[in-house]
């Protein structure tokens, strides 16, 4: 079982949000969330017609439920999934100190502090589990996300043209 304590936060609009690990039983909600966010922004790695099915997401979440060092967070408010965060550690001996993080948030919740709350939770989890280096990929045009990551201490280490 993942060692992550549920976090309760209030966004800048005073809306209460609970951040916790997602369960495989929530695969339908997660699939619907990803369908929505892939339609709302061009900054994610998948397009809406490439979104995973609830069955695929359920299989993925069941694998994560057994993982000791990877985490998939859900941010819920009023029963609605409004954001997600993911941490995946590398498994090779030489790179176990590295983890990849990613965040997705519904557009109507951008700029309200949810990204910061998700990043803080993922960073704490990563450090507790031995990460010395967190990595992510972001499109250079996504200034809002870049600003979030820079506030969390991330620095640019390279660019991949046409990626």
Description:
- Helix content is 31%, strand content 23%.
- The protein has four helices and six strands.
- The protein has helices spanning 27-40, 54-66, 114-128, 143-151; strands at 7-10, 16-21, 71-77, 80-89, 98-105, 133-135.
- Strands 1-2-3-4-5-6 form a six-stranded mixed sheet, with helices on both faces.
- A hairpin with an 8-residue loop joins strand 4 and strand 5 (98-105).
Short description:
This protein is of the alpha+beta class and 163 residues long. The chain is 31% helix and 23% strand. It has helices at residues 27-40, 54-66, 114-128, 143-151; strands spanning 7-10, 16-21, 71-77, 80-89, 98-105, 133-135.
Secondary-structure blueprint:
Elements: E1 7-10, E2 16-21, H1 27-40, H2 54-66, E3 71-77, E4 80-89, E5 98-105, H3 114-128, E6 133-135, H4 143-151
Parallel strand pairs: 5-6
Antiparallel strand pairs: 1-2, 2-3, 3-4, 4-5
Helix pairs in contact: 1-2
Number of separate strands = 6
Q: Which spans have pLDDT < 50 for at least 5 consecutive residues?
A: none
What kind of assembly state do the chains in view correspond to? single chain
Radius of gyration: 15 Å
Give the strand order, joined by hyphens, for the main sheet: 1-2-3-4-5-6
Share of β-strand residues: 15-25%
What sort of overall outline do the alpha carbons produce when their principal axes are compared? globular
Average of pLDDT: 91
- Helix content estimate: 25-40%
Sequence of secondary-structure elements: EEHHEEEHEH
Q: Give the structural class.
A: alpha+beta
Number of helices: 4
Tell me about the largest β-sheet. Answer: 6 strands, mixed
Distance between the termini: 35 Å
């Amino acid at each position: 079982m993942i060692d992550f304590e549920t976090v309760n936060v209030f966004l800048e609009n005073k809306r209460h949000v609970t951040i916790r690990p997602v369960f495989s039983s929530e695969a339908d909600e997660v699939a619907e969330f990803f369908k929505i966010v892939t339609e709302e922004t061009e900054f994610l790695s998948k397009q809406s017609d490439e979104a995973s099915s609830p069955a695929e997401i359920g299989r993925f979440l069941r694998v994560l439920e057994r993982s000791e060092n990877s985490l998939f967070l859900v941010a819920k408010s009023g029963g609605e999934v409004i954001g997600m965060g993911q941490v995946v550690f590398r498994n090779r001996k030489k790179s176990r100190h590295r983890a990849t993080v990613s965040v997705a948030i519904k557009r109507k919740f951008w700029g309200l502090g949810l990204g910061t709350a998700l990043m803080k939770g993922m960073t704490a989890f990563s450090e507790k589990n031995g990460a010395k280096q967190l990595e992510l990929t972001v499109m250079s045009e996504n200034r809002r996300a870049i600003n979030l990551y820079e506030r969390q201490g991330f620095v640019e280490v390279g660019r991949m043209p046409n990626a």
